[in-house]
Amino acid sequence: MPKDFYPLPLIDQLVDSTPGCELLSMMDASQGYHQIILALEDRKRVRLISSAGTFCYVAMPFGLKYAGATYQHLVDKIFCPQIKKSIVVYVDDMLVKSKDAKNHVTDLEETFNVLRSYRLKLNLGKCTFGAQGGCYLGFMVTQIGIEANPLKIKAILDMKAPTNVDEVQRGEDEHAIGKTGYIRTTREMSVELSETIYGGHLQVGKIATTCGWTFHDSGQWCRHSHHFAMWRRFRVYYQV
């Protein structure tokens, strides 16, 4: 396969475009990359050697370096008229969104027509149609905003507060600051959260009290928050 440096979309931007939509439909492509047929000249480059002989892949297998970019390039091309209007696509994960519930069936029909014309199939077991909210790319998306995914915050809720500087500095143990990254990227209080933790890091005497409040506060916020992020317009001013 030729090298394809086509960029993948930013997950945060895709998710942030969903609030404000009355109905959502989450869809997953069946068999993923296997739905893309390899060109004849490329099949000899993707071979499988076994005791029964040497075999060539007919469809694009998983594990190729540029498989994700190739698939994203495909879906961006075929869904171009709908993207930024009624659909967001990340590789094989699709979300049809309608600001007006009355238009949702029409938006779905348009999507199905595209899938049918390119002979792409869906995994119905992983699809949800006409919902007011659901899980997409690891986030719980709803009409009013983005909620914390219970599966994603379990580690934060179960995490013990660090009691000394060494535990704060560690990056991959049970007291990892990195575990709060899931909420720090979207939470409006992310600056306060980081300042409190690192402030405690710098002041050894206050580490137990400061970080104890921070980790407890983070867990309580994740457990009770119904408004993880909110879509809103903003202006950027710049001078040339």
List the helices and strands and how they pair.
Blueprint: H1 11-16, E1 23-28, H2 40-43, E2 47-50, E3 53-56, H3 67-78, E4 87-90, E5 93-98, H4 104-117, E6 128-131, E7 133-136, E8 139-142, E9 146-147, H5 150-157, H6 165-169, H7 181-184, H8 190-202, H9 207-224
Antiparallel strand pairs: 1-5, 1-6, 2-3, 4-5, 7-8, 8-9
Q: What does this protein structure show overall?
A:
The protein is an alpha+beta fold. Helices cover about 35% and strands about 15% of the residues. The chain contains 9 helices and 9 strands. The chain has helices at about 10-15, 40-45, 65-80, 105-115, 150-155, 165-170, 180-185, 190-200, 205-225, and strands spanning about 25-30, 45-50, 55, 85-90, 95-100, 130, 135, 140, 145. Strand 8 and strand 9 (about 145) form a beta hairpin. The model is unreliable at about 170-175 and about 200-215 (pLDDT under 50). It comes from Sesamum angolense. It holds the Pfam family RVT_1. InterPro entries: DNA/RNA_pol_sf, Rev_trsase/Diguanyl_cyclase, RNA-dir_DNA_polymerase, RT_dom.
Strand percentage lies at 15-25%
Task: Give the low-confidence spans.
Answer: 171-176, 201-213
Please state how the strands of the largest beta sheet are arranged side by side: 4-5-1-6
Report the major sheet.
4 strands, antiparallel
What is the distance, rounded to the nearest whole angstrom, between the alpha carbons of the first and last residues? 42 Å
Number of helices: 9
Average pLDDT number: 77
Overall shape:
globular
**How large is the radius of gyration?**
22 Å
Which range best describes the helical content: under 10%, 10-25%, 25-40%, 40-55%, 55-70% or over 70%? 25-40%
Helix/strand-derived category reads: alpha+beta
H/E element string? HEHEEHEEHEEEEHHHHH
Compute the number of strand runs.
9
Domain Reverse transcriptase: 1-141
InterPro entries: DNA/RNA_pol_sf, Rev_trsase/Diguanyl_cyclase, RNA-dir_DNA_polymerase, RT_dom
Pfam family, one: RVT_1
Protein name: Reverse transcriptase domain-containing protein
